[in-house]
Amino acid sequence: MRKITLLTSALAFSVMTSMSAMAAQTSITLGMQLEPPNLDPTSAAAAAIDEVVYANIFEGLTRYQADGSIVPALAKSWEISDDGLTYTFTLHSGVTFHDGTTMDAEDVKFSLDRARAEDSTNAQKRLFTGIASVDVVNPTTVSITLSNPDGGFITNLAWGDAVIVAPESIDAAANAPVGTGPFKFSRWVQGDRIEIEKNPDYWGEPIALEKATFKFISDPTAAFAAVMAGDIDAFPGYPAPENLPQFEADPRFSVIVGSTEGETILSMNNKSEKLTDVRVRKAIAHAINRQAIIDGAMFGFGTPIGTHFAPHHPDYLDLTGQSAYDPAAAKALLKEAGYSEGLTLSLKLPPPSYARRGGEIIASQLREVGIETEIENLEWAQWLEQVFRGKDFDLSIVSHTEPMDIGIYANPEYYFQYDSAAFQKTIDDLMLATDAGERTALLQSAQRVIADDYVNGYLFQLARTGVANSKIRGLWENSPTQANDLTGVSWSD
Amino acid sequence: MVRYIVTRFCVLSVSLLVASGIIFTMLEVVPGDPASFMLGINAEADTLAAMRRELGLDQPMLQRYLSWLGGMLTGDFGISYTYRVPVSELVMARIWISLPLAIFALILSTLIAVPAGLIAASRRGRVSDWTVMGTTQLGIAIPNFWFAMILVSIFAIKLRWFSAGGFPGWDQGFWICMQALLLPAIALALPQASILARVMRSSLLETLSQDYIRTARAKGLSQRRTVWAHAFRNALIPVLTIIGLQFSFLIAGAIIIENVFFLPGLGRLIFQGITQRDLIVVESVVMLLVFAVICVNFLVDIAYALVDPRLRRP
Fold it and tell me: Is the whole-model pTM more than 0.90?
């Protein structure tokens, strides 16, 4: 009899625990500062699109993980031919899109061909221009041939712009995205929020959440109020770092500080008359006190960098010493370059606070060594037109948020107009290199070349500061790519 | 009368045409290419060209102006560049937040202002008059966004009676939506009510000093009865004029309050449209607001003519 009581109480206990597990919260509301303009990651650049759909709604052949590593996604495995030109991908079988259609090799071919087509509107078309052909071998096997070996190809396929879409549903993706991910789109109240819900037919590992809501709050004060009032469970890209100590002191919240792929630089127009002289660029680099900028503009969040490379990457070289804060050296260099009387440069700033606040600090630091700046605040659209396309600037501040984008220095047409044969050769070699050791050596030499040439003033790696309810587990700390991957997120009791 | 209306109507059409031309050219000369904003800094030149083709931006300016104008006449405002949905759909969704909010705020402000003004005027120089005058002075001086933030920190953060902002959508139920609109409406209504109460008070005082009021009192009516039967209705005319002016301000001018409470209204739509260079949205919404203002003016003109026969003669 005693045994039976024990058994029933054990049963009752297990029922209770499973009930409390059932009662655990399964929905989450995330705050985002910017609303995505549409939800098609394959034809617009806005980071907010990927922050909603990446890994949640859409998946690619490969994907980024929280630590920045690339793992298989829709592709189960792949083989690379000895010449490095042909990639044969084996796809997971039984994968369906949210509208019920099957995902197979034909969809992979369609997606990649669409991205590299002549009339493609893919914002990262250069990721796909190396593809010579995409061939369907059988429904679960697809082979991709490149025109040149490209050691970064597998990484390219993990981008949000490389997700697999279906010809049946892509035309409506802007407002009704249909992917293969663990969440499916449920509704969008434009200007207010986007709701996604669990996809019961998901092919992979099942997720813990039933529902997720992305709520758009652009005003930092309103964001603070919404988190404090409990309307928002997590705000991963929290717009006002000055409030973080307040959240840190409150046991209801935990503060998440991680790194991003954003190298924040004082970009210099290398073809602008006064900046063609490397001594002037070097003088500017020495005039900058990075820590003062990080403290003053970013409330202490950010890691100093000395070249255009993410510090958390294993191949990173710390070259900050090469452009250490040294106003005396900066003055001497300016004198040597013939500017003992000082000089005046334009400083055009886009809207983010790192640029506007950082710009004021840099202007005063430059004034110390005799460089006057004419600050001009621009909207993004103006910045793109004047600085990025028009190259009508001396100095600007911008965070380059694309992962592994040191290759932009090989393009002499890029807005800072750096033209170095040595650097271009390094990048060409890198494209052909598939051996890990060789790639590391080349990436490090690339970092050194641009630091030696003082192409830009390298400031800091942009931090990602967020706040979340302290019971939430599994949010990304770092942002190897722009995403709010909710697949591993759950509530603890 | 018919001739008067026809003349006013012609003026209205010409104003609209001129306004459309000004709005279109102004936004076209603003620097910033919608396609490059959408595709970001890594886009290739041919990708940008393909996007411009898709958006119809490769056509000459005059042709785009004419097709925009032609579309509007048939009720087709075009497709938003960034959202990729018809502009009319976007506007309709936003109007159902901005309009109820404006009406709600207006009702609140009238409900507060008219009695307050009445009390102040009929007890001129007494404590209640000073209280009303003092409070309204404060109400005019306090910026509405600051007042909104105070409301949020008290009622949303401390007391947790309301959410800090956002809009659930009308399909979630009427009362839930009204609850979401209550704090923004109060924040909007307070400065408006302050102005209105002062107008009500001074207008009533002026009316009360008229000869016919003295006559009414002389024939033996009580003070209260005089105010109600003779003064109040006459004093309302300037108040109604102010309410009319405030209403158009509330629809187009709630942008800051919409930001504080992150409400997806018309003001936010214009603001977003400008930063994202979604020119067609900005053009169409501004045009719609111009249309509304011009129409109100037109109706006011007609109403004046009905009241004042002298205006009917050309």
Answer: no
